[in-house]
Amino acid sequence: MEVQTDKKIINFIKKRIKDSHNIVAVLGIEMLVESGGCDLDSNDENYRVEEEYGFCPEDILSTSFFNAKVEKFYRFYKNEILGMQQHSTAAYDSLLKLQTQGKLSAVICQNFHGVPQSINLRNVIDLNGNININQCPHCDKDFDIQYLINSKGIPQCDHCKAAIRPGIRLIGERVDSELMTKAAEVCDAADVLLILGKNMYNDRLEYSSAPERKQLKVLFSKNDFERNGKVDFIIRDDICEFLPLIID
């Protein structure tokens, strides 16, 4: 499949990556979709979810909904969130190549699903939590994803019978301040920042670098109306098609 990005831009980004010693990748929804997940924020998915569950994804994945309608929350969460199956892609292979070369300093994941467990990327910052980490709000006992999947109805702590709290950041909750600080620091230090898709909450976190140092920022977005003056290039091609072209 031929990419639509101009070859001059491809070669420019490729050279900057070759010369870089500190690259940070920010994983957005497009990375999840290309690896087998779906964008619940899309119009089609919003409509489908509201037809099936009576509420839109944004309403269901909120703190207030979880506290007031936990049974309906978990019906959606098990089917739609835990039901997504991720697999490796050429984009992940490219990130692994950067890691092997010693260029990839950090990966910031904005999706609930994190990096597929078969992909051994290091220094991953899960800004919005991770579906694999779940905890009882009363006794702090940890539960893995299979415990939630295998539970009938509301997953409950086997010790105190409280509804287990999924390990994701629900809408209405703030990002952990320590994680945010760490993410901002690694982005600020990067020579190249690869923003691989939009933020799942559609409130993109903006990172800036010191004005005296030139940092290359590349945003991957399929939105033709996307305009972002804070990045150098917006790439419309599939991430799994484009990354192998710019990473030797």
What would your notes on this structure say?
This protein has 248 residues and is α/β, with parallel strands linked by helices. The protein has a domain of 148 residues: Rossmann fold (3-Layer(aba) Sandwich). A 6-stranded parallel β-sheet has the order 3-2-1-6-7-8, with helices on both faces. It has a two-stranded antiparallel ribbon with strand order 4-5. Helix 7 packs parallel to helix 10. The chain is globular. The two termini are 19 Å apart. The model has no long low-confidence stretch (mean pLDDT 90).
Please describe the structure with a list of short key phrases separated by commas or semicolons.
248 residues, alpha/beta, Rossmann fold, 6-stranded parallel β-sheet, two-stranded antiparallel ribbon, 10 helices, 12% strand
Summarize the structure.
With 248 residues, this protein is of the alpha/beta class. It is 36% helix and 12% strand.
Write the layout of secondary structure elements.
Blueprint: H1 7-19, E1 23-27, H2 29-34, H3 43-53, H4 57-60, H5 63-68, H6 70-81, H7 90-100, E2 104-109, E3 124-126, E4 134-135, E5 142-143, H8 145-150, H9 177-189, E6 192-196, E7 216-220, E8 233-235, H10 239-246
Parallel strand pairs: 1-2, 1-6, 2-3, 6-7, 7-8
Antiparallel strand pairs: 4-5
Helix pairs in contact: 7-10
